[in-house]
Amino acid sequence: MVVKHEDGQAILEYILLLMTVVGAYLIVVNSLGKFKLSEKMMAPLNGDFKRAYQYGHPQALGYDDGGPENHPFAPPSSGKNNGRLFISPR
Amino acid sequence: MVSLFKRKVSEHDGQSTIEFALTLILLFTFSMFFLKLAMFFGVANYVHYATFMSARAYLSAGEDRQGDQVRRARDVIVTTLKKSVGQSGTDRWPLVLKAEGGGGEILGFNADPPSQYSDVDSNSSWMQGVRYTFKGNFFLAPLGVRGERGNTQVNSMSLTSESWLGREPNYNECAREMGRHHGLFDNGC
Fold it and tell me: N or C: which end of chain B has fewer CB within 10 A?
């Protein structure tokens, strides 16, 4: 009988399993996107680190970012904590 | 038939493989993210050094500003951060960071003073040096890269390295200034 032949069973099971795994992956990916996890991970990099890299202080603002503030080169009279090379980052 | 079904259901051979496959997605994402971040930080430190060296070249006096001081600063950036002198438009490590913006033909490089600069106001006369702007992309695919922050992708970070070392007066500026005071027979330049 043809019914007794089970040649394609493993492939069929593999495809069904693959559909289940891919489905689970898509569900996880979509739910993670809703939490905006990537934005939360990138927030300190695009904020504190970016300013520390450019100005040497995590809360510093340059002339083009609405400052200057906590800026090491800007004259002291131009804003808060300007003109100081060493400022506590807190 | 029932016993065969029970036996098949009780077999858990593939469970660990499926769990591993599902965990691998997150594991791979976080691993790649931190690997890329480490590489980006490493090269970003090198960019600071390159900008500083470029600002040193810009600082030294020469014949004139555009043809000598800016050219020297640009050459330093090209030799340190670009593929070669002949490929000055190609970044040296395009997979790690890409130059963006800038004020001239070399992407990312800018030796023009900002709009706040004034050579007669000591509060802003220090704004002479070199800036280099670049960005890096991080692998965050399963965490959702579709969200956007303005026109920028969420998974990218843009940094600017700046070095304000100042600029010495070049020969033309010196001769012009000294000529105003003492005449050109011995201009002191």
Answer: N
